[in-house]
Amino acid sequence: MATEFRINGKELLAKVEELIKEGNARRIIIKDENGKTYIEIPVTVGLIGAVFAPVLAAVGAIAALASNFTVEVIKKEDE
Q1: What pLDDT sits at residue 59?
Q2: Distance separating alpha carbons of residues 75 and 69, to the nearest angstrom
Q3: Which of 23, 28, 34, 72 has a 20 to 30 Å separation from 14 between CA atoms?
């Protein structure tokens, strides 16, 4: 079971950073308002800081493409 958030492009990067810092997500999937998947981010325990910098840069670029997104979070206990 996954949790979904509907957010606008301006909030996308902050939400993804928040989810990574929480540490209970296994995978983060970013989709546009039509359900098209832009990026799937596997969040592995032990990956921090500089490793996520390129991922966050990609998320920032994606945020500029559209105004509304769905962020699907698959949590560790959902496995």
Answers
A1: 85
A2: 19
A3: 34
